[in-house]
Amino acid sequence: MQLIELIENAVSGLGYELVDLETSPRGRLLRVFIDRLPNRGTVTIDDCTAVSNQLTRLLTVENVDYDRLEVSSPGLDRVLKKPADWLRFAGQDAQFKLRVAIGNQRNFVGRIVGIEGDSALVSIDGEERKFPLDGIDKARLVPRY
To answer: Does residue 86 surpass a pLDDT of 70?
Structure first.
């Protein structure tokens, strides 16, 4: 089983969502970002501690070689990776970078409308536009203060 699948199964088994997994170049650092399921509140330090303890035991049993494990919330500028993220955060602002430029522009900021097929629908300056999800390199929410 791949490391990401192993961690995702453990995290979802505890009732959380795996938002992202970052590893250092040699896999010595594992950084896990978790979130509560929709409408279940925000992630607390106790949530991070519970997931960290479970993952530490699991990674030991599975003989995963690492030096440090960090578990945290995704933050206000949470990454958008899955199609479900684009649906869940409809109505919020996002900034994203495309893999290939449209014209001479790769970076965009707009309000998330939702998903249509395999594309994210985003309102930019009042105009609704489609961006294929597989063409988006990085996407994050833009926090409102």
So the answer is: yes
